[in-house]
Amino acid sequence: MSSSALSFGHFMPSGWVLDLDGVVWVGQTPVPGAAEAVERLRRSGASVVFVTNLSALTVAEQEARLAGCGIDAAGLVVTSATAAGRLIHPGERVLVVGGSGIVEAVELAGAEVCSSEAVDAVIVGIDPGFDYNALGRAMRAVRGGARLIGTNHDPSYPTEAGLEPGGGALLAAVAAAAEAVPTMAGKPNQPVVECVRDRMGDTGVVVGDRPDSDGRFAQALGYEFALVLSGVTSADDLPVSPEPQYQARDLVELVDRMGIQPLG
Question: How many domains does the chain have?
Fold first, then answer.
């Protein structure tokens, strides 16, 4: 399926679910034109929400980063940590392997973040400080009876210098050491599906750069899937499964094909 053959002529989605890494930015660099494309969508009457599998940042930190790119996203960001919080019960003790986004979600759920191995749950997300000691502590907690929760399965994420290991790579290490099957929170799993359906309803389109995360997320929501080639997936990787309904070089090209006029 070539990008030039695709058109939105038969369907104008009213709800847009946009991934961040690989769609709005790559690493620390905004994708050219992404902020204007979001504004064009909004002026057309579309509702937009941003959903990321990155769990390292708090929701406010993600909103601030989007604001720095020229996108007002206050109240419109859902992270895999947000979804993981749905799997935690008030009063539980939780060992966090990850960043401030997971800590925030645990505390909002009314639970306590602990460094002890005697916990009710272990949540694993991306953690640049992950080491052998962290692996051992998480493994022993799970072997001791704690539930293992993964924010996402993504093995990698895109940066300006190429791919870097994702939270799914760390989770795989913990799961292997503990000989446990994790419960998953982020795209394309049910906790984040519920987060988005509560906001967006039953129809829409998911825009993302990963068929295994974003494409399956669209299927779980019952939405259409638009694949952009500005992140992990390139033209050399095509065809992919699940097959996207739409495919474009980036978010700007996707919006252009809808016939939405440029700003100005």
Answer: 2
Q: Is 45 helix (H, G, I), strand (E, B) or coil?
A: coil
Distance, CA of 187 to CA of 86 (rounded, Å) = 14
- Whole-number Å distance between alpha carbons of 16 and 116: 41
Beta bridge partners of 15: 47
Task: Identify the domain boundary among 126, 152, 184.
Answer: 184
Q: What would the pLDDT profile of 22-77 be if each residue is shown by its tens digit?
A: 999 999 999 999 999 999 999 999 999 999 999 999 999 999 999 999 999 999 99
Q: Are both 107 and 146 inside the same structural domain?
A: yes
Averaged pLDDT, 174-195: 97
Q: Are 49 and 200 in contact (CB under 8 A)?
A: yes
φ, ψ of residue 87 to 5 degrees: the values are: -100, 5
Strands 47-52, 77-79: parallel, antiparallel or unpaired by DSSP?
parallel
Residue with tokens 């990698």: 156
| Tokens 């799961």 sit on residue | 175
Same domain, 96 and 62: no
Domain of 241 in residue numbering reads as 13-81+188-257
pTM of the predicted model over 0.85:
yes
For a pLDDT cut of 70, what percent of the chain falls above it? 95
Question: Considering the domain boundaries, does residue 263 fall inside one?
Answer: no
**Could you identify the residue written with the tokens 């994708």?**
31
